[in-house]
């Protein structure tokens, strides 16, 4: 959990959320968005804990291998979701639902984002504990912090917020990876101090990507998920190379 390249994108959390939405669409096609949210949250939490257990079971010597494991796991889950969508003729519905797109946000749908407010408050309350947990298990235990408990709380919050975003606007790849890392470069790893800056930079980055997506092919529009994916991939590669260089030194 000390790896800065682990995020909902590189841990497969978004793919698990998509699979949960697909399952709800297959078995409960007429139900409201709350059912989709429940399935997305359950599978996001379960998939994220599976990733963590795999990381704990497989000891990596290189910092890069951990996000690669998550990406491979996410690819497997995404392939399974695609297979199920093909078998149930829901490919188009799933594609329209899950591609990051602000155009699909309507009244009665975006309100579920309000559920993330208590989770954000909880994150701020436990921010110092998360900072200590990020220093390692032994260090946390020496300071009297229950490492496993704090990690589980963090995973629950991350997976739930990811599911909320995916259900509301679709996938926004690399957002939870590049923004915290950029803030960390300039503000350090003190989570409580970095949280407000992370929130503001994330909002600015999303708005900038949305504006670019609307300008490039005006009067048409590129989905914000694609725009963020392009920018995010470039920034992620830069951070990855920089992080590997620092890790090697």
TrEMBL record:
Q: Which UniProt keywords apply?
A: Cell membrane, Membrane, Transmembrane, Transmembrane helix, Transport
Parts of the chain that traverse the membrane: 33-52, 64-86, 112-130, 150-183, 195-216, 222-241
Which family, according to the similarity comment? Belongs to the binding-protein-dependent transport system permease family. FecCD subfamily.
User: Which ranges of the sequence are coiled-coil?
Assistant: none
Where does the source fall among the domains of life?
Answer: Bacteria
Localization per Swiss-Prot or TrEMBL: Cell membrane
Supply the Pfam families for this chain.
Answer: FecCD
- UniProt lineage: Bacteria, Bacillati, Bacillota, Bacilli, Bacillales
Q: Which GO terms describe its cellular component?
A: plasma membrane
What is the protein name for this chain? Iron compound ABC uptake transporter permease protein
Primary site of residence: membrane
| One GO-annotated biological process of the protein | siderophore-iron import into cell
